[in-house]
Design goal:
The complex is a heterodimer of chains A (about 400) and B (about 130). Chain A is mostly helical. Chain A has two domains: about 170 residues, Orthogonal Bundle (Cytochrome Bc1 Complex, Chain D, domain 2), CATH 1.10.760.10; about 130 residues, Cytochrome Bc1 Complex, Chain D, domain 2 (Orthogonal Bundle). Helix content of chain A is about 40%, strand content about 0%. Chain A is built from 15 helices and four strands. In chain A, about 40% of the residues are buried. With about 130 residues, chain B is mainly β. Chain B has a single domain, classed as Immunoglobulin-like (Sandwich), CATH 2.60.40. The longest helix of chain B is centred in the N-terminal third of the chain and has 13 residues. Chain B is globular. Classes of the chains: A mainly alpha (about 400), B mainly beta (about 130). The interface between A and B is medium-sized, with 26 and 24 residues.
Chain lengths: ~400, ~130
């Protein structure tokens, strides 16, 4: 009896052992391994933005964190950046359309990994993280704060004034516009620290590149099949390219851009107009980078008629934790996103050449695989400790 | 990339007649395109072109007859998808006769066709060269 039990136990351990080592791994081609490699390594080096003098400085980051949570920056004293960009909700709000003073036309994007972007907002109207951070402060539909309010608060609040002095090396002066820009630069320094953790995909990628088949095989088969689709037949990586799964540019995937009957969101086209009109762009006097190197995109970007109805390609890290999706929150779940790519109406997508987006007609299994892959880009996030005081 | 480099070196070694047109742009890397009348040698700066990252091209433009030649425009498109760059390259002529096309960005992986509009006297022509970005 004992012998039988022992045999059984041995057999069982042997089974799990072989089960583990014989975990299937797709037969990845060299070409595929190279494509997969392009989605890493992760995390990237910390952000250093030469256009922002307090980028990467501990005192700038800390001041930014306090300002991010500061409702006195808003016209009604009730709304802060954190009202819409909530730490516990992956820096978004879970709504289809953001709720400011009124309901806005666009969804609040997650701010994960935002420091690595080069165009900001769904239409790329901002060319730096700090320029983008000015907009909600001034926009009457959002925080409706106003330039004066920001300056007055920095001058009159003891803790903020002290935090400002530590970050910028001078006391808050009387130039309200400069204080507005500096506020935005501190906010940007803080937001640039939002780097999402490593994911199951990253472990797989690194193991695959290192030739460690055992470790690579821990990545579920369905995610592997979904990944093969993503970089293969579905060519999702034409746009969702690189470590953040975005090329940082703009595309039209057939999401309706009607805001109300008769009114459209022109997307990138309008964004380029706003960029050209902004006194806060990298071509303006507030850019701290004397070399002008970082303004190259802004200097050379051009308007194309195809920009109409284009929106920024979102990064896909932490995507499964968010939703609803798209610039207007019109797609509810990740499954629905995949359904969209599977069934998209080709007439809606004007393309002269081989279309980048076309109805993929995925089987239910393929759709489930693609979702499994997308979910492997998610990582749990430890709760954030409260910010330490500015000037203890 | 390395293969083009080798091709360039062989071309240079095997064709002494090209010696008048300085095809070596330094750093030992680059590409050459030519037609019946023109030759263009160019290399990217930085040398490795990355998807979504701005780069410049350093170029020498020559005619085979040795007449002065001028670079008018540099463009790029993805022939399969029929779309161009989201950026417009600006051309700067430097005193040493070279050109620099600044502000190119290839925003997708795949095949990009770079086209060069060149002119010598009244004659203008478009030359092109493919780069596959992965």
């Amino acid at each position: 009896m004992i012998r039988l039990l022992l045999a059984l136990v041995l057999a069982a351990t042997a089974a799990t052992a072989t089960g583990a080592s014989a975990q299937p791994l797709l037969d990845w081609t060299e070409e595929e391994v190279r494509s997969i490699g392009r989605h890493g390594p992760w995390p990237p080096p910390p952000v250093r933005d030469p256009s922002n003098r307090v980028s990467g400085t501990p005192s700038g980051i800390l001041l930014g964190e306090h300002l991010f949570n500061e409702p006195r920056l808003s016209g009604n004293g009730k709304m802060s950046c954190a009202t819409c960009h909530q730490a516990g909700r992956d820096w978004s709000d879970g709504l289809a359309r953001a709720q400011g003073v009124v309901e806005l036309d666009r969804r609040t994007p997650s701010l994960w990994n935002v420091g690595y972007s080069h165009w900001f907002g769904w239409d790329g109207a901002g060319d730096s993280l700090w320029a983008q951070s000015i907009r909600p402060l001034l926009d009457a539909r959002e925080m409706n704060g106003g330039t004066e309010r920001v300056g007055t608060l920095l001058r009159n609040d003891r803790a903020l004034a002290c935090g400002y002095e530590k970050a910028f090396g001078r006391k808050p002066g009387n130039d309200d516009e400069l204080l507005l820009v500096d506020t935005a630069k501190a906010l940007a320094a803080f937001q640039a620290t939002f780097v999402s953790p490593r994911t199951p995909f990253d472990d797989f990628r690194d193991a695959l590149l290192a030739g460690d088949r055992g470790a690579a095989a821990r990545y579920p088969m369905s995610a592997q099949r979904g990944l093969r689709l993503f970089i293969g037949n579905a060519s999702c990586n034409a746009c969702h390219f690189g470590p953040r799964f975005t090329n940082g540019e703009f595309g039209d995937i057939g999401i309706p851009f009607f805001v109300r009957p008769g009114e459209v969101d022109s997307g990138r086209l309008g964004g380029l107009t706003r960029l050209a009109e902004s006194p806060f762009s990298l071509l303006g006097k507030f850019n701290d980078d004397a070399t002008g190197e970082n303004a190259r995109r802004t200097r050379h970007v051009r308007r194309l008629h195809t920009n109409f109805g284009e929106f920024r390609v979102p990064g896909l890290r932490q995507v499964g934790r968010g939703g609803p999706y798209m610039h207007n929150g019109s797609v509810a779940t990740l499954e629905d996103v995949v359904k969209h790519y599977s069934e998209v109406n080709p007439d809606r997508l004007h393309s002269d050449g081989v279309p980048l987006v076309r109805p993929l007609a995925l089987s239910p299994d393929q759709s489930a695989d693609l979702v499994a892959f997308l979910r492997s880009l998610d990582a749990d996030v430890p709760p954030r400790p409260a910010a330490p005081p500015l000037c203890p | 990339m390395r293969r083009f480099f080798v091709a360039l070196m062989m071309l240079m070694g095997a064709t002494p007649a090209l010696a008048d047109c300085p095809l070596d742009l330094g750093r030992g890397t680059g590409w050459v395109v030519f037609s019946d009348h023109y030759m263009i040698a160019f290399r990217p700066d930085p040398v490795r072109v990355e998807v979504g990252e701005p780069f410049a091209l350093v170029l020498n433009v020559c005619t085979k007859g040795g007449d002065p030649a001028e670079l008018i425009a540099v463009e790029a498109q993805m022939p399969e998808h029929k779309h161009s760059m989201n950026y417009k390259a600006a051309i700067v002529a430097s005193p040493n006769g070279r050109y620099r096309a600044e502000g190119l960005v290839f925003h997708m992986p795949g095949r990009w066709e770079i086209s060069f509009d060149v002119r010598a006297g009244e004659e203008s022509e478009r030359l092109s060269h493919d780069i596959i970005l992965k």
